[in-house]
Design brief:
Elements: H1 45-48, H2 51-64, H3 66-80, E1 85-87, H4 93-107, H5 118-132, E2 134-140, E3 153-158, E4 168-169, E5 175-177, E6 180-182, E7 188-194, E8 209-213, E9 217-221, H6 239-259, E10 264-268, E11 316-320, H7 330-345, H8 349-353, H9 361-401, H10 414-417, E12 421-423, H11 432-445, H12 450-458, H13 462-479, H14 526-545, H15 552-561, H16 569-577, H17 603-610
Antiparallel strand pairs: 1-12, 2-3, 2-9, 4-5, 5-6, 6-7, 7-8, 10-11
Helix pairs in contact: 2-3, 3-5, 3-9
């Protein structure tokens, strides 16, 4: 590094050091920043020399550190769930059913190692990508005699099986960088894999390499910089912090364990001429604590027994152990460290630790929104684009080529058939009632469609949901059942809808914009009932606060609006006895019983009511 003092102006005066830092503190060349952050390594030079160490150290943490292992499990479970499923862009329902049936049969046989389905491979790939930074899926073509639905399988490799130190010229004159071969145009041409995992030394040909064409390899990783060839373990920036936290917690556990082993210490305060060791193990036998302590060869440990009142000889004293605590700031400090770790992992503190103390619905929902947005990005960039998509395209080509699927215009409209939308598994919310209510409002307002709501929330095709609902309704009609969940028969409040004048089933109201209006059967639509409930809740608050005095007209309004029957004669008579008003409970005199001013109901009125 040059010395700025040697650079002078035209008069021979040296430029001040501050002139070389520019106008930014982060670029200053003072003592605080002189030798920090000056590396200019490229995206691959930075990875090449560190990848093996980072990979091995994160693997050690995942094996032995519950925070690291739990973090990986949380990420994989939320990325994959029950599987990321394809939504085929096929309008022909019959063809769509045939494609879906063929796909279902094939995904059960997708793993060349027969350890998982295709959706299980998604979880394996996601875990390997998180642990080692990358995963490789290599296509395999089994024999037709194996009896598989499609002659296509995948074998998954970890990142360690591609040597990141392998940089050379291939036999064809292509460049090999970090185990990946590139052609003259800079495109990936092949991968030079170890035949066996280098961490499995019992194979004789472990370190032999074989070339696999790039078109047969699905390289799944998260590139962080343009031109980055290999993936980094996802915890690379918190490995040291996790290790230090683990050591700190372990040291505290050992300290607490050690301090509990000592109940106290026996001290000898001997006057002049006192016989050393009298009454102590190692000296003449004695009975210091009320029981025999042993001979001269016994261990220097005294066992304390409950209920004893020992009389110590002259010159002896007992000092009980008072271990020093770590202080009250240990928990707060550890919480902050774990929050840093959670941020580095890309998950929430609550997901990392399971600590839900002080969590509110709003705070946990805000944290989950950010977490899920990040996962949606990772799913689209890595699992879908680099793994699911190439497998599905290769599978569809083979299905048509082998005649398993007959699509006459497939090669003429190949791009149209290959427009597959991938739907991750749906996420449940902390409060699903609010989530469903918001989805209903979006659909009714035209901000969203049922198809997107169903796909995003449940991860399935809306046509499958519609078919299942139709089948449920047909089965209920055949059995003569009227279910509370059937909107054709009941309202959202469980009120049975009346039949039309011609005896046919009631149909939904044609008033698309109605909120709270009556339908043909005299009942209120679901959104209207929700509005009524909110009105009733607000009304109850006002009544309890004494701001409103309940009147008979209020009950009549809510009955009419909600489509309920009119008040019975007994209810009307009760209102009349109270003068059609009722005093709010909160305004009554405290500690005094409310006088019963009601008059007996006439016998004739009772008889009329019974009639």
């Amino acid at each position: 590094m040059f010395d700025p003092a040697t650079i002078v102006d035209r008069h021979g005066r040296p430029y001040p050091r501050a002139a070389y830092g520019g106008g930014f503190e982060g670029a200053a060349a003072g003592d605080r920043m002189a030798d920090w952050g000056l590396s200019a390594l490229g995206p691959n030079a930075a990875v090449e020399g560190s990848l093996a160490s980072l990979r091995n150290r994160q693997a050690e943490l995942v094996r032995n550190n519950p925070l690291a292992g739990g973090g990986v499990d949380t990420i994989v479970a939320n990325m994959v769930g029950r599987g990321i499923r394809p939504l085929w862009n096929i309008a022909d329902r019959d063809l769509l059913n045939r494609v879906q049936d063929a796909w279902f049969d094939s995904v059960q046989e997708a793993d060349a190692d027969a350890a998982a389905s295709f959706y299980g491979l998604q979880a394996i790939v996601a875990g390997a990508m998180c642990n080692t930074g990358e995963a490789f899926g290599v296509f395999s073509y089994p024999s037709p005699y194996d009896g598989l639905a499609t002659p296509l399988q995948v074998r998954v490799f970890e990142g360690a099986q591609l040597d990141e130190t392998h940089t050379a010229l291939s036999g064809t004159g292509h460049d090999i960088r970090m185990g990946i071969e590139f052609d003259g145009r800079g495109r990936r041409a092949g991968y030079h894999f170890y035949r066996k995992h280098p961490g499995e030394p019992y194979f004789l040909n472990t370190f032999e390499k074989r070339r696999v064409p790039a078109g047969e390899v699905m390289h799944v990783y998260r590139p962080l910089r343009p031109g980055q060839l290999r993936g980094l373990p996802w915890f690379h920036n918190i490995i040291l912090k996790l290790h230090d936290i683990d050591q700190c917690v372990d040291a505290e556990l050992v300290r607490r364990k050690t301090t509990t082993m000592f109940g106290g210490f026996i001290k000898q305060i001997a006057p002049a001429g006192f016989l050393p060791g009298a009454g102590m193990p190692g000296g003449p036998p004695g009975n210091i604590l009320g029981h025999q302590t042993g001979t001269a060869h016994a261990a220097q440990v005294i066992e304390l027994r409950p209920g004893t009142f020992p009389k110590l000889p002259a010159g002896w004293d007992v000092a009980f152990a008072q271990p020093t605590d770590v202080g009250g700031n240990y928990v707060a400090w550890m919480v902050q460290q774990l929050r840093d770790v959670a941020k580095g992992m890309g998950i929430t503190y609550e997901q990392l630790t399971g600590d839900l103390a002080g969590v509110t619905y709003t705070s946990i929902r805000a944290g989950l929104l950010d977490f899920r947005r990040r996962l949606e990005q990772l799913i689209a960039m890595t699992l879908v684009f680099q793994f699911c998509r190439p497998f599905a395209l290769r599978w569809l080509d083979l299905q048509v080529a082998t005649g398993a699927l007959e699509i006459p215009d497939y090669f003429a409209r190949r791009r149209a058939y290959r427009r597959i939308e991938w739907q991750p598994d749906g996420w449940d919310w902390v409060d699903p009632v609010k989530d469903v209510r918001a989805a209903i409002m979006e659909v009714r307002a035209g901000f969203n469609s049922r198809q997107r709501v169903v796909a995003r929330r449940h991860g399935v095709d809306v046509e499958d949901i519609d078919a299942e609902i139709a089948e449920d309704n047909r089965r209920a009609d055949t059995a003569g059942l009227v279910l509370d969940s059937d909107p054709r028969r009941t309202t959202n409040g469980g009120i049975v809808q009346s039949e039309n004048a011609d005896g046919t089933d009631p149909q939904p109201s044609q008033d698309a914009g109605g909120t709270g209006g009556q339908d043909r059967g005299g009942a209120t639509d679901t959104t209207g009932l929700q509005d009524i409930k909110e009105q009733a809740d607000a009304y109850g608050v006002f009544v309890r606060s004494g701001a409103i005095t309940p009147q008979m007209s209020d009950e009549a309004y809510f009955r009419k609006t909600a489509g309920l029957p009119e008040a019975s004669a007994e209810v009307a008579a009760a209102w009349r006895r109270d003068g059609n008003v009722r005093r709010p409970v909160t305004l009554r005199d405290a500690g005094q019983a409310t006088p019963d001013t009601r008059q007996p109901i006439d016998q004739e009125e009772n008889e009329d009511d019974r009639d």
